[in-house]
């Protein structure tokens, strides 16, 4: 592309600068915040301690507001037959073979009774799961999305939330990635095309306002 | 993220450097190559004339190899009720209201009799369409993906191809975007996580080898 | 099965006699009420004139109540490549090849401006369409389902409404089939497992109560 | 419907008497053959001992032919939040709350290492699961479907197999239901519209021929 494309922000202006309203009945969806990304010995270790702390604060706020909380994790049958092409592409997904300690939630982000765990095999939390049906049956219209990694499962989940008819709000500080470049590039794409990327304090204010 | 993440390529090494094989029964899927991105007067104009030429060559090669060819386009009911949250988020999607000339294929990428057009409302060509069923019923195992835009519908489609169990091969020169930065960032993510990003001449060699 | 199964109603008692509540935000979904089933010369002619009259009354009631109204139809590319296995199985689906007059709506059940047509290729109105996304984005929680045929697209659609998290209410007199036996057998299964089968006057009372 | 519809078989002739070919790469899919239907104390007990014996023979034949074997079961989070509208409609589904012994496979139909279990929450084994992706990634084109119950999960699964582009072959003796009437009515609908209903010995001959 040999073109005069200008800087990115002004290039997108007028075409990809729309906004979505926050709805009436939000849920908090914490994507794949598991030990595989937190254990320095893991091939997927991402150095996302700050995002962990942010999720702890958001989880407390959601619980205080009695907003539905859902967690996702990843689990494969031994050998990954249920992981299909994705499992073949990304050898590091072996970290999620059933029984692996890397698939566990950290103590501070562990589901309580009544909080649902959506177990998935692919990037999007909506793909091959009953998440959309569950959110619809729960009468949710807005999904606060956090978790790991921004360029992988968070983006795929926010895209699918939009496609399925839910208002996706991605919380910037509560997402993380192993490298800053794809983290920022994907937040940029999400804000431009599919979601609202908001700050943690905005998300917490939204939750507090529901009380 | 205050961490020593190093350069991107070496950071991803060992975790996200897997590869997928090219299958036995490919199809060519040309995503949203329509006038909205080619007409300089369109809000979605992307300056993708080089990608157009690349698609013309790939289309000729696929037809010569008698490989199934599928095109996608986008079309909304007046007012966009069938576009849901996506249509609300991206006002520029009005370009695809039914009857808009911006939704038309360019003369050189027009489907022939027997070549299927998949009409979609969302980013992924698999979402809310019968594309996966069609590919399965056609016994396709590999999808050569081209089109517009890299950071939008191409990425969403390649992600979903992987999730649905097809081997996605994205042709670099045959994709395009309105700005180089998201174009490159998304090809990087696709290669790392969901697909093989290959050069046009590799794709043409694959098609020629089927004869 | 050589067992003492008793009569059907008492056999199902206690296991399959649950009920669903009518929700707050219904939509009317008229499935495949097109000329293929109304034209005596069509291979799919079903003799459903009574159901047509019932749909006319329900449509008027839904419009009077300002409830969203959606229609489905069926359309295939020439040759049916987008109909996959279903089109191979049922040769009569050729009636829905693009451009066939059998695919048209009857004058009295024709969508008005602002009423959505969901074009589908398979039995379920949710399969390979954006219907679920549209209903979610419209904030619908309950779907009044009518149309043709009871044992085919109506049942498949009601099943999928339930699976997607919507409350399905099937209107008995507004559905029809080419033979009474599968009509009744499928209404029985739907009431037992997935939906509430209600009478037309109940449906009209529900709509009137919204005003 | 006051019409001269004649007997059912002749009424359907010419419209719904098409056939599908058996493909090249079958899999055996055993739907929900779990203790809830086999334990006389269960509210879902169905008296399907003959179908159990038929599945044992089919399973042995599939293993001998090295055909992929997949089992489904049903499991809900406590309270059934992941069961949505379906769980509200059918109180008997409480039998599948996580940890219930009624959700277990009988000893003679227990998956071996390398045989996949697809855990589902809804009627169709394809709905909200990665089954379609798995079958595609395994290069399967034909699904031999057996299990429980004919009028519930078997029919929903066979319908979805057809919709997803797989050739569905339902094995008559290997399916069962709590009452003969819906069993027969649903096999009739399946044969007419979505699948081939075959006898056990035909299925076993197909498997033997692959050797």
- Catalogue the unreliable spans of chain A: none
Return the CATH class of chain A.
Alpha Beta
CATH superfamily of chain A: Isochorismatase-like
In total, the number of strands of chain A is 6
How many angstroms separate the termini of chain A? 51 Å
Oligomer: homotetramer
Derived from helix and strand composition plus strand pairing, the structural class of chain A reads: alpha/beta
Radius of gyration of chain A: 17 Å
Total of helices of chain A: 7
Which fold name is given in CATH as the topology of chain A? Rossmann fold
Helicity range of the residues of chain A? 25-40%
Would you give an account of this structure?
Chain A has 211 residues and is α/β, with parallel strands linked by helices. Chain A has one domain (24-209): Isochorismatase-like (Rossmann fold, 3-Layer(aba) Sandwich), CATH 3.40.50.850. Helix content of chain A is 35%, strand content 18%. Chain A is built from seven helices and six strands; from the N terminus they run αβαβαβαβαβαβα. Chain A has a six-stranded parallel beta sheet, sandwiched between helices. In chain A, β5, α6 (180-193) and β6 form a beta-alpha-beta unit. In chain A, α2 runs parallel beside α7 (200-209). The longest helix of chain A has 16 residues, at 49-64. Chain A is globular, with a radius of gyration of 17 Å. The relative contact order of chain A is 0.20. Chains in contact: A-B, A-C, A-D, B-C, B-D, C-D. Chains C and D meet through α1, α3, α5, β5 and α6 of C and α1, α3, α5, β5 and α6 of D.
């Amino acid at each position: 592309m040999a073109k005069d494309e200008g800087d990115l922000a002004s290039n997108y202006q007028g075409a990809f600068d729309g906004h979505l309203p926050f709805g009436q009945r939000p849920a908090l969806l914490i994507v794949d915040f598991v030990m595989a990304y937190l254990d320095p010995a893991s091939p997927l270790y991402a150095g996302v301690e700050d995002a962990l702390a942010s999720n702890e604060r958001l989880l407390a706020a959601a619980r205080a507001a009695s907003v539905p909380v859902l967690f996702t994790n990843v689990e494969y049958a031994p050998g990954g037959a249920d992981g299909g092409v994705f499992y073949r592409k990304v050898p590091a997904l072996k970290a999620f073979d059933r029984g692996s300690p890397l698939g566990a939630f950290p103590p501070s982000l562990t589901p309580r009774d009544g909080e649902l765990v959506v177990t998935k095999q692919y990037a999007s939390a909506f793909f091959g799961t009953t998440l959309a049906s569950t959110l619809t049956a729960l009468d949710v219209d807005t999904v606060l999305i956090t978790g790991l990694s921004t360029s992988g499962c968070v983006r795929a989940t926010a895209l699918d939330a939009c496609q399925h008819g839910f208002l996706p709000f991605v919380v910037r500080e509560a997402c993380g990635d192993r490298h800053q470049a794809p983290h920022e590039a994907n937040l940029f794409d999400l804000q431009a095309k599919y979601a609202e990327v908001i700050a943690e304090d905005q998300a917490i204010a939204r939750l507090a306002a529901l009380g």
